[in-house]
């Protein structure tokens, strides 16, 4: 039987769904290559938030009036949609948070009574600050030891060194799925399997992965998977902590107050069941509904074709950038996502970024919250271009032209 031909990716139609892209900056059409910092929002997400505040706003859970019932139904539907999107076994394994950072802090704080002196926690040399500092603080409180899995010059994790570092003392391995600076896609299934051999817990930072590949937490078999809504075409201030049911049940609550309780007296408190045990206080209801609509939008488009298009843009950009004199790509792992970090000779990234902005090209410059990684490469920062399926090759050509201008002006 003949395979069906793939439908061409409808870039123009997709771009119409993102109203922010239809604007001029400094007299030129906006070109947005800062998607690793935050993706733009489709009209469906924006409209869903407006709809909630205009028609359905009320606090969720326990209310018996129509507005509260509608708000609660939408809020809990979001949990179901997210659960299905990442293939969680149970809906209550999905905890609503305000982002990746809170999700990691929640786990690190909630594990406080399980981590003891001389236990070991492993992270990698490419981690974002939000996957470094919470574990440093847990080590300070507990007397545990933080160990760092090294990387090589191409930006790949050194698996031999990882295997050497992992021992019976290892209690947690917290690793990024995709580096926000290098674009490296880590072999997380290998890492998780190795962790299981010593009964260590695993947390995967999926902030840079969830919008660029299909995520199946049951297949990955991690204990925790975390990500932010604003990097998944959803609103800021939203995020997800996925945790295996039995692991979440073993954790202490992270915050205390309303919603996360079952019964309170002045003598004692009984905590609520999952997922509410970890959702103290009034949540970001509108944002959570917006995140649900972002996922529904991704299900409506041909996601596989979108990712193929996105990587084609990345590959074209990499090819064109390498033609520029004195440009050095930082991190060229074999398995990459749609992120390119680079330097140009001795030019300061901020200066280059400022000139690019004059040509309406938005990139990110600096250390990208990975200062130890910058120390490894012995650079102050990089220029980072990160791509989405709404970008085009024509935009890449403008980027290259703007970089040539910046080089000429600053040299």
Concise structural overview:
This protein is α/β, with parallel strands linked by helices. The chain has helices at residues 11-15, 43-56, 66-86, 100-110, 133-142, 159-165, 188-196, 217-220, 245-250, 285-300, 303-321, 349-358, 371-377, 393-410, and strands at residues 24-25, 28-29, 31-32, 94-97, 120-124, 145-149, 170-176, 201-205, 224-228, 239-243, 261-264, 269-271, 327-329, 339-344, 361-362, 364-366, 382-386.
Can you offer a commentary on this structure?
The chain has a 7-stranded mixed beta sheet with strand order 4-10-9-8-7-5-6, with helices on both faces. It has a 4-stranded antiparallel beta sheet with strand order 13-14-17-16, covered by helices on one side. The chain is of the alpha/beta class and 411 residues long. It has 14 helices and 17 strands. The chain has 2 domains: 11-32 and 302-410, Aspartate Aminotransferase, domain 1 (Alpha-Beta Complex), CATH 3.90.1150; 46-299, 3-Layer(aba) Sandwich (Aspartate Aminotransferase, domain 2). The termini are far apart. The mean pLDDT is 95. Helix 2 (43-56) packs antiparallel against helix 10, helix 3 (66-86) packs across helix 10 and helix 11 (303-321) packs parallel to helix 14. The protein is globular.
């Amino acid at each position: 039987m003949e395979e069906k031909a793939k439908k061409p990716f409808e870039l123009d139609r997709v771009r119409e769904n993102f109203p922010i892209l239809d604007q001029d900056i400094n007299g030129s059409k906006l070109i947005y290559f800062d998607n690793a910092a935050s993706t733009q929002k489709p009209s469906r997400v924006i409209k869903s938030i407006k709809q909630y505040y205009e028609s359905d706003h009320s606090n969720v859970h326990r209310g018996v009036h129509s507005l509260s019932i509608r708000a609660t139904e939408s809020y809990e539907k979001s949990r179901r949609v997210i659960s299905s999107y990442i293939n969680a076994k149970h809906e209550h394994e999905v905890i609503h948070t305000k982002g990746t950072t809170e999700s990691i802090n929640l786990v690190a704080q909630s594990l406080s009574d399980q981590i003891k002196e001389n236990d070991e926690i492993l992270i990698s040399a490419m981690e974002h600050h939000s996957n470094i500092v919470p574990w440093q603080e847990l080590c300070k409180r507990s007397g545990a030891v933080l160990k760092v899995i090294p990387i090589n010059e191409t930006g790949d994790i050194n698996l031999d060194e990882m295997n050497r570092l992992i021992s019976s003392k290892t209690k947690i391995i917290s690793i990024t799925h995709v580096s926000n600076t290098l674009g490296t896609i880590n072999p997380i299934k290998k890492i998780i399997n190795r962790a299981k051999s010593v009964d260590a817990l695993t947390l995967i930072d999926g902030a840079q992965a969830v919008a660029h590949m299909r995520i199946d937490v049951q297949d990955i078999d991690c204990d925790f998977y975390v990500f932010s809504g604003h990097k998944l075409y959803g609103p800021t201030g939203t995020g997800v902590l996925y945790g295996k049911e039995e692991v979440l049940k073993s954790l202490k609550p992270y915050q205390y107050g309303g919603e996360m309780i079952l019964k309170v007296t002045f003598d004692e408190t009984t905590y609520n069941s999952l997922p509410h045990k970890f959702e103290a206080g009034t949540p970001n209801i509108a944002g959570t509904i917006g995140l649900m609509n972002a996922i529904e939008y991704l299900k409506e488009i041909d996601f596989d074709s979108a990712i193929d298009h996105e990587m084609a843009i990345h590959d074209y950009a990499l090819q064109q950038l390498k033609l520029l004199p004195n440009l050095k790509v930082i991190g060229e792992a074999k398995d990459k996502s749609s992120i390119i970090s680079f330097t140009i000779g001795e030019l300061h990234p901020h200066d280059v970024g400022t000139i690019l902005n004059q040509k309406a090209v938005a990139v990110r410059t600096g250390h990208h919250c990975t200062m130890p990684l910058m120390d490894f490469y012995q650079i102050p920062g990089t220029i980072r271009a990160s791509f989405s399926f709404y970008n085009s090759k024509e935009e890449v050509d403008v980027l290259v032209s703007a970089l040539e201008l910046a080089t000429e002006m600053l040299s």
